[in-house]
Design goal:
With 152 residues, the protein is mainly alpha-helical. Helices cover 60% and strands 7% of the residues. The protein starts with 6 loop residues before the first helix and ends in a 15-residue tail after the last helix.
Length: 152
């Protein structure tokens, strides 16, 4: 393969490697990438219903229920009665979930630095901008990893 060719392949190769490494780095926290993504969304919008969270993340609702069940068992989130609609629950991050968010941020920053260590600061900025442009053109949901979109 010539230098600079087959960018789609290289994106897929680096993306798969990055996803695998991130999952490995989350394992000591007893988290998976879907757990991390859901915590991140709920940290900015606590109180969402499962239906709203599924729509916001583009994830199949039945897959989301199973992940939230796991997160509730880990003590990271709770389902609270929704005062406006008794058929729905509001998802809330627990104190433990907020503590884990701090550790998650450290893992994400370390992962990003390790993955991009071969690049200068300017190259990192340029790469991020180009990838955001591609993601937007492809209709990807900002901040949502496609791995969480798999139907359960």
């Amino acid at each position: 393969m010539k230098k600079g060719g087959f960018a789609a392949f290289l994106l897929a190769q680096v993306g798969a490697h990055a996803a695998k490494r991130f999952a490995e780095e989350l394992a000591p926290l007893k988290l998976t990438p879907p757990h991390a993504g859901i915590l991140r969304v709920l940290a900015g919008a606590s109180g969402l219903s499962q239906r709203e969270l599924a729509a916001r993340m583009g994830i199949h609702p039945s897959r989301l229920v199973a992940i939230v069940d796991e997160m509730e068992a880990l003590g990271l989130v709770t389902r609270e009665a929704n005062s406006e609609d008794r058929r729905q629950y509001a998802l809330q991050i627990t104190g433990k979930g907020r503590e884990v968010m701090g550790a998650l941020g450290a893992v994400a920053r370390r992962h990003n630095e390790t993955l991009l260590r071969a690049l200068s600061v300017d190259e990192k900025t340029q790469l991020a901008g180009l990838l955001e442009k591609i993601a937007g053109d492809q209709g990807l949901i900002p901040g949502v990893h496609p791995g969480v979109l798999v139907a359960g």
